[in-house]
Amino acid sequence: MNEPTRKSLGVINPNDKVQQLRNAFAEDAPARGAGDPLGVAPASKPSQQVVQDQIISALRTVYDPEIPVNVYDLGLIYAIDVADDNAVKITMTLTAPGCPVAGQIVADVETKVENVDAVKSCTVDLVFEPSWTKERMSEAALLELGLI
């Protein structure tokens, strides 16, 4: 008896396709680089100015509970230093050295700044020299408090 003739239907053996993909992936590995198994490029590091702007936005969400203006526009932030590794140091003051909520404000500044995606860590240096004066306030803060 004659055996029936088998006709190829053009179906690819799934095992062959998997092996082809493995081979292609292995050939491509040096182009992707170590630590990047899926070929996804790492997100680019934001510029220092972008990080600084994000920090300022975060600081504008921190309020002295006794004054309805954020600490940045009040002029309580003297310096924002961002290191190359995005560790942040904030130098700030308070409206008065005996501020009863000083610890809460400092902790809130640290927490809000550390919640910025690009920030690695935040430390706050609380200073009282130079003394804070209303001249350090932004125009928006002066307007909000009815001082202009």
Describe this structure in words.
The protein has a domain of 97 residues: 2-Layer Sandwich (GMP Synthetase, Chain A, domain 3). Helix content is 34%, strand content 12%. It has four helices and three strands; from the N terminus they run H-H-E-E-H-E-H.
Structural class: alpha+beta
Total beta strands: 3
Q: How big is the Rg?
A: 29 Å
CATH topology tier name of the domain at 48-144: GMP Synthetase, Chain A, domain 3
Strand content: 5-15%
Quick one: CATH superfamily of the domain at 48-144? Fe-S cluster assembly (FSCA)
**Overall pLDDT:** 82
C-alpha geometry: elongated
What helical percentage do the residues reach? 25-40%
What is the ordering of alpha helices and beta strands? HHEEHEH
CATH architecture of the domain at 48-144: 2-Layer Sandwich
Number of helices: 4
Report low-confidence residues grouped into runs of 5 or more.
none
For the terminal residues, how far apart are their CA atoms? 107 Å
Largest sheet: 3 strands, mixed
CATH domain class name of the domain at 48-144: Alpha Beta
Strand order of the largest sheet: 1-2-3
